[in-house]
Write a structure and sequence with these properties.
This protein has helices at about 1-15, 35-100, 105-125, 130-145, 150-185, 210-220, 220-245, 370-384; strands at about 20-25, 25-35, 260, 265, 275, 280-285, 290, 295-305, 310-315, 320-330, 335, 340-345, 355-365, 365-370. It is α+β, with helices and mostly antiparallel strands. Strands 3, 6, 7, 8, 9, 10, 11, 12, 13 and 14 form a 10-stranded antiparallel beta sheet that branches. The longest helix is centred in the first third of the chain and has 66 residues, at about 35-100. Mean pLDDT is about 75; it is low at about 200-205.
Length: about 375
């Protein structure tokens, strides 16, 4: 009671009763500002200032994230353009050396056979990769188009065709790896953590980390071996990233329900005060099907405080998704599921104002913005 009395005295001293006199049209009006009224006004001003600060900080964080992603995409685009220009310069140099070189047709034919064998190893690994056939078909067609009747000219065309085919394979492998890296960064993930750097490069014979050793194994010139090695390395990284992308939760959890609430600070529907929202909300009718956004293993099915009925899926690599406020379940703990498989039905259980889905994505124990994963998924689908 003594402390309470001292606090009351301090507040009275800080906000003493004030009298405000207003003179208008020859009449004077008096207003009394009591200590209680002054405290209410001060509290309102402080709350408004806090809310403006929180909103400003959230906007700055979103702007910084977007600008960083734009800079990274521009940087990757610039690197790809320089890489293509370098490959074209190498091709022009090889053609100049070919025109100036002298030697027997037998030696040239043997050299081309060895290069062909090296190319066959690389192209065998590229078989079946999305977009590989479309990227390589023009180069293969040009390599086979040998209308000149002169044997020497045909040999020269074959050699040029090999250069062009390797160029196309190299550009395809690097372009595919770059696109997948962009998808990871759009999702807020680091591509390097999902690539096995210790894996062999390319096929069973293209596994040397030293291009000079690879040139000796394949019995081709060192420049050609370096390019084979680079293309195989980029292809291996693209394959590793593609396998990792297939495990990420990039799909939508509902078939078409609109998003009704975003990730971050918002007004709580119950308290009407600013609160942190750790996921996205999607609206829909009662019992609307809910689908898994990525492959994984069901880690939990049941109720959680505030969430109501939930399903949690472990996707490996520290990734987990949570689906809340459900009306029913279609899976059980320990069950392995695939992307797009129905796992539950939409409801309004737990701390909910109406039928909707609350969807969260967790990375290494921290809630992330699921919207970034959805955008990354749309980017991957558009570029496959």
């Amino acid at each position: 009671m003594k402390s309470f009395t001292q606090l009351r005295r301090s507040l009275v001293e800080l906000f003493p009763e004030r009298h405000l006199y207003v003179r208008s049209g020859g009449a004077m009006k008096a207003f009394v500002l009591t200590t209680k009224k002054q405290m209410v006004l001060a509290g309102g001003v402080a709350a408004s200032a806090l809310w403006m600060g929180v909103c400003t900080a959230a906007m700055l964080v979103n702007l910084m994230s977007a600008s960083a992603a734009d800079r990274e995409i521009a940087k990757l685009k610039s690197q790809s353009e320089r890489y293509v220009a370098d490959r074209q310069a190498r091709l022009d140099s090889a053609m100049a050396r070919l025109n100036a070189a002298s030697g027997s047709n037998t030696d040239m034919a043997a050299s081309m056979e060895k290069r062909h064998a090296a190319l066959a190893l690389l192209l065998t690994d590229m078989k079946g990769a999305p977009g590989a056939a479309e990227a390589l078909t023009p180069a293969i067609t040009r390599a086979l188009a040998q209308a000149d009747a002169s044997p020497v000219r045909r040999v020269e065309q074959v050699r040029i065709g090999q250069e062009q085919l390797l160029e196309a394979a190299d550009s395809f492998a690097k372009s595919r790896a770059d696109r997948l890296r962009i998808a990871f960064r759009m999702a807020g993930l680091s591509p390097s953590t999902f690539v096995d750097r210790g894996a062999a490069l390319g096929g069973p014979l293209i596994e040397s980390k030293d291009p000079r050793a690879l040139a000796a194994v394949l019995d081709v010139d060192e420049d050609f071996a370096i390019r084979i090695h680079r293309a195989a390395r980029d292809l291996n990284e693209a394959e590793s990233l593609a396998e990792a992308v297939d495990d990420l939760p990039l799909a939508r959890p509902t078939a078409g329900g609109p998003q009704t609430s975003g990730f971050g600070v918002r007004f709580d529907p119950f308290t009407r005060r600013p609160a942190y929202h750790s996921g996205l909300d999607f609206s829909g009718a009662h019992a609307t099907p809910i689908y898994a956004t990525g492959p994984g293993v069901v880690a939990y099915v049941g109720r959680r405080s505030g969430y109501g009925n939930v399903v949690e899926i472990d996707h490996g690599r520290g990734l987990k998704t949570r689906y809340a406020h459900l009306s029913g379940f279609s899976v059980s703990p320990g069950q392995r599921i695939g992307v797009g498989q129905r796992i539950a039905a939409m409801g309004s259980t737990g701390r909910s104002t109406g039928t909707h889905l609350h969807y969260e994505v967790w990375v290494n124990g921290r809630a992330q913005n699921p919207g970034r994963f959805l955008k990354a998924g749309q980017y991957v689908l558009q570029n496959d």
